[in-house]
Specification:
The complex is a heterodimer. By secondary structure, chain A is α+β, with helices and mostly antiparallel strands. Chain A has four helices and eleven strands; from the N terminus they run H-H-E-E-E-E-E-E-H-E-E-E-E-E-H. By secondary structure, chain B is α+β, with helices and mostly antiparallel strands. The chains are: A alpha+beta, B alpha+beta. Chains A and B meet through helix 1 of A and strand 2, strand 3, strand 4 and helix 3 of B.
Amino acid sequence: MAECSRDGRMRKSVLREIVFLGAVTVAGLVADEPVHSQDWASLKESFRNIQSVKAEFVQERHLQILKAPLVSEGRFFYLASGSLRWEYLSPLQSVMLQKGDNVQLYHFSEGAWKQDMAQGVEARRMVLAEMSQWFQGRFEESRIFRHSYSQCPPCRILLTPGEGINKFILGIEIVLSDRPGVIERVEITEPGGSATRIVFRNVELNAGLPSKVFDEP
Amino acid sequence: MNFRKKPKIGLFALVMLCAGCLYTPETALLPGTQEDLESCVALFPSGHWECVHKIEGVIQGERSSSMLGIIRGYPAGRELHTVLLTPEGFILFEAEQHEHAMSVLKAVAPFDSPAFARGLMEDLNFLSLAPEGGPSKWGRTADGAILCRWESPDGTRREVTLSTVRKISLRDKHGDLAKEALFMAPFVKGLASQMELRVHKPAPYRLKMNLLPGTP
C-alpha cells in the first residue's frame, strides 16, 4: 500500500476529510435555551454556555453502490475545554480521542484495542480544530463553509461549502430538536446521490465526564 | 565469543533464505470427479452479489488500520465495483471493473496511486472471480483434499484447495507463493463469514475481512 506523503495531494485529502468528518461530528452543536424564539445572535451566544455533551447516535450512510444504507451506531463525549471522544460501537468498533492537541485513533480487534496507522491522525486533528469553532458558534470563522440560519420550526443551520469543496459535499443541514438545546439530526448531501444522516438520542448536556473517557480507548 | 561458529550460522541463514526461492513442485493428484471441480468453482460467488466487510489491514506485521469495504460483483461479466470507507463513512477509494477494463471513480491520498488501484483490484479478482477458462488439473491430494489448478500464459498458477480449510493460492512463474486467501465458515449465500488475505510478494501485507451481518 502506498505511504502517505506530506504534499499537495495529502493536503487536499486532509481538507476533504475535514469537511466530511467535521460534518459527521457536528453533534456537539447545542443550545441551552428554547430555540423557537431565538435569533442567530442568541443561538450563537448559547453555545458558549455548553461545558459538556454526551450522546448516542445512529449513522446511515447512503451510497449508490448499496441497495440499503450502511448503518453504524456509536456515542460521543465532548468537553468545551478541548476534549472529544467520538466512538463507533458497530459494525466497526473504533474510537477517536482528542485531548488538547493530541489526537489518537484506535480500533478494536481480536480482543484488544490497537492504535491505528498514523496517517489519519493529522487529518482528524484539523477536523477537530474546525469543529471546535462550530462548538463555540463561530461559523463565520470557517474557511470551508458559509452558514445560514433557517427560522423555526424546525430550526436549521445550513452549511454550504465554498468553491472546490462542493465537488464532493453539496451541503450540510443541522436540524435542532424540539427539546431546547439539542441537535436532532445532521444530514450531509453529496453529489451523485450519496448522503449521510446522523440521528442523535439520549443527549445529556453539562454532565460530569470522567477524564479517562478522553484518555483510554 | 566463538568466531568459528559464524561460518556455520551464515551458511544456515543462506540455506534458509534460499529455501524461500526454491521452486515448489506441483502436488501429485489422484483423479478427481466433476463434482470436485464444481466444488472448487463454488468457492467464488455467483450471480449478482453484494457484500460489506470490516477490514483490518496489517502492514509489515506491525501497523494496522481498520476500514469498511463494499464489493458488488457480477462474475458473468467479470464486473466488480468496490468502495473503501473510513469508519466515519468517508470514501477513500472507489473503482469499477468491466471485463478487464478498470476505472477509478474516486481516490484520495494515500489511496490515489495507480499502483494501489491495480493492486486492490488484483486482490479482489483473486478473491472474488473464478479464473478464466478451464483448470489445467484437478483431483485429490494424498490426504483427501480437493485441489484445482489453473495455469496462466504468464506462468502464474492459481490453486483452490478444499479441506478443513478452504484456500486460494497464487504462485508466480518461479513457483513462489505470491498470495493466499483463507475462507472461514460459516458461509452466507456462498460468501465466507471471514477471509484472510496474505500477500507475500512483492510487498507483504495482510487483510482480515469479516462479513457484516445482513450483507448479503
